[in-house]
Amino acid sequence: MRGIMIHSLMARGIAFDEAFHAANEVRSRVGDRVVLEKSELAKMLREILGPEPFAEDPRVPLPGAEITVTGRGKGVPFSKGHLSQSLLAAALDPNDAFDVAREIERELVASGTHEVDRRDLRRMTFDVLTREVSPRAAERYLVWRKYQEPERPVIILLGGATGVGKTSLALEVAHRLGIGRVLSTDSIRQIMRIMLSQDLVPALHASSYDAHKLLPPESVGDDPVIDGFMSQAASVSVGVRASMDRAVLENASLVLDGVAIVPGLIDLEVYADLADVFFVMVSLLDEEGFETRFAERATSAKARPQHRYLKNLNAILRVQNHLLELADRHGVPIVDNVSFDSSVLQIVRHVTESLRKKGDFDAAEML
Q1: Sign of the torsion formed by the C-alpha atoms of 291, 295, 300 and 305
Q2: Cβ neighbour number for residue 100 with a 10 Å cutoff
Q3: Cα separation of 332 and 325, whole Å?
C-alpha cells in the first residue's frame, strides 16, 4: 500500500514529495505482480532514492517489516505510535516518547524479532526508559500501565478561574493518560439551568464572576463577587459529586474541569476507598496572559466576546485569588499555566508520582 510506504519513508526523515514519488515509482514497477520479496522491495527503493536514506541506521525496518505483539488472545501489530502514546503517562515530552518508542523498535528489529510477548515488551520498555530517560520515569510508566485496568477509577479534578486554560489542559491530560471521559462544570451548570429556573437558583443563571448580580441584596456580604461565586459553585458541586459517583459506579476514570470545582466544597474523604482522586488548581498569575486567552477564546467561541471578559477582569482576578487561598488552605497543588506543555507535564507527573508513592506498586510484579 502506497500510504503505508509513504509513512514509513517519512519516518526515516524523507520529505513527503520524495516519499510520494518513490511509492508511485514502486507501484509502477511492480505492476500486476502478486508477490514481492522484501529484499527486492529494498533494492527498488535504493535504486529510486539512493543509499543515503538507508545508510544512517540500517536497523530501521524497511516498509513491510512486521512485529506482532502477543499475550492477550490474537496478536496485534507493533506500533511506535501506540507505544509512544502509552509513554506519555510517564510525563515525557511527546518527542522524547517517540524517540524511546523508535529505539525499542530498532532493538526489536536488530535482534531479528518478529513476535514479542506483551509482558516482554513492557519489560523492554522499562529497561529502555531507565537507560535513556531515568529510573523514576520508568516507574511512572509501569504505574500507569497498572491503572489501565484499575480496581478503582482515577478521577482528576482541575479547578481554576475563568480563562486560565482548564479545559485545554483537561483534554490534553486525558489524551496523554488515555482517559476517555472528560467533563466540564460548564456542561453541568447548563443542564442544571434547564432543570432549575432562575427563581429557584438565581446564581446558576449567570457567570461565575457576576453571579452576585442575580442574588437578593440581603444574601451577599462584604464581598458580593465572592459570595455570588460561592453560591453558584455550591449548587454546581452537587452535579460534580454526581459525576464522580457515576465514575465510581462504572469504574471509569474521569478528568473533570471547571471554575465550580472549589477546595472544601467537595468532601474528597468520601472517595478515599472508592477512587484515586487528584485535585489540581490551575492559575494564571500574569494578568496580561488573561487578555491573550480571552482573545483566543473569542476566535473559537463567538458567543464569548473578548470585551465581555476584559470588562470583568477585576472580578475574575478576585475569584482566582479566592480559589488560590482555598487551595493553599486545603493543600491543593497549584499550577501556574504560563506554558501549556509544561503545565500538562506537571499535572501528569503529579498524578503518576502520587500513585507511585502510594506504596502498593510492585515493579517486579509487573515485570
Answers
A1: positive
A2: 24
A3: 10
Where on the phi/psi map is residue 262: left (φ > 0), alpha (ψ -120 to 50), or beta? Answer: beta
Whole-number Å distance between alpha carbons of 35 and 264: 67
- Residue 64 to residue 26: CA distance in whole angstroms: 13
Three cell numbers, residue 343: 503545565
State the Cα–Cα distance between residues 288 and 140, nearest whole angstrom: 35
CB atoms within 10 A of CB 335: 22
Place of cell 479534578: 157
In Å, how far are 7, 32, 174, 248 from 39, measured between CA atoms? 19, 18, 42, 54
Dig out the grid coordinates for 223 from the structure.
464581598
- Nearest-5° Cα angle at 33, 30 to 35: 105
Q: Determine if the pTM surpasses 0.70.
A: yes
Q: How far apart are the first and last CA of the chain?
A: 37
pLDDT per position as a tens digit, 56-115: 454 445 444 578 899 866 788 888 888 988 899 899 988 889 889 988 988 888 888 889
The model's pLDDT over 110-169, given as tens digits with 9 standing for 90+, comes to 888 889 998 899 999 999 999 999 999 999 998 888 887 778 899 999 999 998 999 999
